[in-house]
Amino acid sequence: MADAGRIDRERLRAERRRVGMRQKDLAAKLDVATNYIGGIERGAYVPGLALVARMEKALGLEAGDLTPAGDDPIIARIVEVLAGYTEAERARALATILEIGEGD
Asked: Average pLDDT, stretch 88-96?
């Protein structure tokens, strides 16, 4: 999952414009600063996967559409599910996944 931190910045911008949103509008929907959205689109910031999933939902996209993980339906589904979790729940889910991985 080497590409998990990447986001398709050009697609984010194109999809945001397609639905008629300004950076300010998307930021308000996501409860983040407007300059953070601009920074993501410029490549200055890399959002977490949960925020990417929320962006996809806000833009009417499928889970994984803005990330290279979109090529893997299992990863895309995990991202979609985790987007609805609290930070503590995501941390517990990650700990469980890592624990399973250590069992190999």
From this structure: 86
Name the CATH superfamily for 9-102. lambda repressor-like DNA-binding domains (1.10.260.40)
Mean pLDDT of the chain: 84
> How do the domains of the chain map onto residue ranges?
9-102
Q: Which residue has the tokens 């949103």?
A: 21
CA–CA dist 51, 90 (Å, integer):
12
How are the residues of the chain apportioned to helix, strand and coil, as percentages rounded to the nearest 5? Answer: 65, 0, 35
Contacts 24+ apart (CB under 8 A), 16-25: 16/59, 18/59, 19/59, 19/60, 21/59
Q: How many helices (H) and strands (E) does the chain have?
A: 6, 0
pLDDT value, residue 2:
34
